[in-house]
Amino acid sequence: MNRQEYLEQIESVIANGKYKDNWQSLSNHKTPEWYYRDKLGIFIHWGIYSVPGYGSEWYSRSMYDKNVREFEYHIKTYGPQNKFGYKDFIPMFKAEKFDPAKWIELFKNAGARYVMPVCEHHDGFAMYETEFNRWNAVDMGPHRNVAGELKAECEKQGLTFCASTHRAEHYFFMNPGRTFDSDVNDDDYRDFYGPAVAFPEFLGKEMTPTTENIYATGASEEWLEDWTVRTCELIDKYQPSILYFDWWIQNHSFKPYLKKICAYYYNRAEEWGKEVTINYKHEAFPPTVATFDVERGALTDISPIPWQTDTAIGKQSWGYRADNEYKTSRQIICDLIDIVSKNGMLLLNVGPKPDGTITDEETKVLTDLGDWLRLNGEGIYGTTFWKKFGEGKVNADGGFFKDGDEKKFTAHDFRFTYKDGCLYAFQMRPNGKDIKIKTLRKRDIHDFLVNSATLLSTGESLEFERNADEMVIKAVKGFKSDTPVCIKFEID
To answer: Is the pTM of this model over 0.85?
Structure first.
């Protein structure tokens, strides 16, 4: 099927389906029950950029940008960009140790319930089989259908497969290479490097304010149609249960095409009998059409609408970086609890090495997370928010890119979740002493009865008393922990 035929198919599916390409029709699309129940997913940033393993997953842009350190690093390590361009990393991306069964087993043991590979990053290299991009991992590099193999393994091991596409930004992404003698200017590779439009507003420091401004210069109609077709092909070939978009799609030029993709996807899901949603940032979609995502950040309070944080174990890069620094297991566990207490879900990223192995640091965090969830997951999975998210002075800073430092929780900081007549209270930084929760103090009115208290990690019953100032839970050995402890209260 060529591009025009696919565009006609998209129109036909929308015309004959339940969902039309307008916000009125698409609004109030239900958050998937499986998604809200499962809470934790794994994001995977893996591609050509893992080969240099330097800077970040933006290496494909940075190596052509004279104003950043990757530019000189590339020349010193690989040669000038007109002799060794980004395309020349492809034969080096062999993925010789990629074992999808091992990956999915690790993610499952970590307690994750859904998996989302980046099927195409801003660099334009597709990690899946596609009819519309000859630059793909099946025909080049690993010579493997990475997304397809992960989907098959997810189905085998009982995890939900999702997909991310960051192709929208490829419109301008490689454009620093237009400003000097580089292989980006070679027409033989135009279909790989993309238009790489070199308008001043997409270069240097102007790029971020331009691409975050909904009213700024947008993409061409030709690009948007092509992007729509490629996205819908990804939907049809892999039937993801979540479709994730990165930024820039909030730009005005994308709006009509977003509506078509959304209607097409939701109609296809009706045919498949699947519950699906779209992840978006900024104001790309109205809030009841898809699921809002906060990149490397959080909210400061409960959202009435389910939302998601995507963050990475690695601090400096989403993809593999040889000198990356990593978050502690405790930080990830605390972030998960905080997010769930505010009606959110967590999409946790790993950045595998070019050979297909996952770093020891990320493996340890995932293993620790799984160990903790096996004991305390009852207070996470299938829960909803309580009347307040928590207690204590420490809270997240709202917004994007606020996840670098571990929050300094104390024994006075708590987070709450609720499920099936039970309240779950997490002490975020246990000190081994009696636990005192002011929120659960005894009241004469507007109160509830607490019938029992149980420490989830051991299953032992706890002694407690409530007075007008606080609830006091008597200390037991299990309160001594480097990670949060969870107490389950059966309430009336």
So the answer is: yes
